[in-house]
Write a structure and sequence with these properties.
Blueprint lengths: L5 E5 L6 H12 L2 E4 H14 L7 H4 L8 E6 L2 E6 L2 E2 L7 H10 L3 H17 L2 E5 L2 H5 L5 E6 L2 H14 L6 H17 L12 E4 L5 H16 L2
Parallel strand pairs: 1-6, 1-7, 2-6, 7-8
Antiparallel strand pairs: 3-4, 4-5
């Protein structure tokens, strides 16, 4: 088997990394790996156990014997915790914040590291997260740092929740976005940052379709695929 092609897409919460990465993977015929879903699954599990996701002594003991894995059903990534499909439960705002809380702990990052690296060695992938290009796949064939202003990201989240009929407040969401940005960029273990060799892409002024098209074209041009 020849060398696989790895594409890393990093960036802050709400920049559209997951949707963009998934659609690009579909267009290229690559596998999509959502690393954020793995951290969300741990955050969800910690909350389900009634523990505090920001307390290391609450989180780390729960990793002992914990199984987090993913599979692909109809081309869609499904995430499992101890064999239970939690994919539909990990997209709420409390779980999002819990994921941000647990992600700085080195034990959590080490716990998930091998899972993420193993699939990159076997498949052509598009992987998105916070430290894919800097830590997980430092030798990725192409790195994209996808971002947007905090205000734009908060507005997108507000509209998404509103359309689903979920009560929400824009100012609260904006505060959460800013807090998560701070947490992610100031954590001691693998803080969110743009890799030196990553291409910066700000999609504040672009819709989802345009973002996907522009980045897909960039990938094809850079990697001649």
């Amino acid at each position: 088997m020849g060398k696989t092609i790895n594409i890393a897409i990093d960036g802050p919460s709400g920049a559209g990394k997951s949707t963009t990465a998934r659609k690009i993977a579909e267009q290229l015929g690559f596998l999509y790996v959502d690393t954020g879903a793995l951290y969300r699954s741990i955050g969800y599990f910690v909350l389900q156990q009634g523990k505090n996701p920001s307390e290391r002594n609450d989180v780390v003991p729960l990793l002992d014997g914990l199984s987090v894995s993913f599979d692909y059903v109809g081309g869609e990534q499904r995430v499992y915790v101890n064999g239970e499909d939690v994919s539909d439960y990990i997209r709420t705002q409390p779980v999002s914040m819990a994921a941000s809380d647990v992600s700085p702990f080195p034990e959590v990052r080490s716990f998930l590291f091998q899972t993420q690296r193993a699939i990159a060695e076997k498949e052509n992938i598009v992987m998105d997260g916070r430290d894919v290009g800097t830590v997980i796949l430092p030798d990725a064939d192409l790195k994209i740092f996808l971002t947007a202003s905090a205000e734009v990201r908060a507005k997108r989240r507000f509209l998404e929740l509103s359309q689903k009929g979920i009560p929400c407040d824009y100012e609260t969401i904006l505060a959460d976005v800013n807090q998560r940005d701070y947490n992610d960029s100031h954590r001691a273990a693998s803080p969110l940052r743009k890799a030196d060799d990553a291409v910066l892409f700000d999609n504040s002024a672009y819709d989802e379709e345009t973002t996907v098209a522009l980045i897909t074209n960039l990938i094809k041009e850079k990697l001649t695929i």
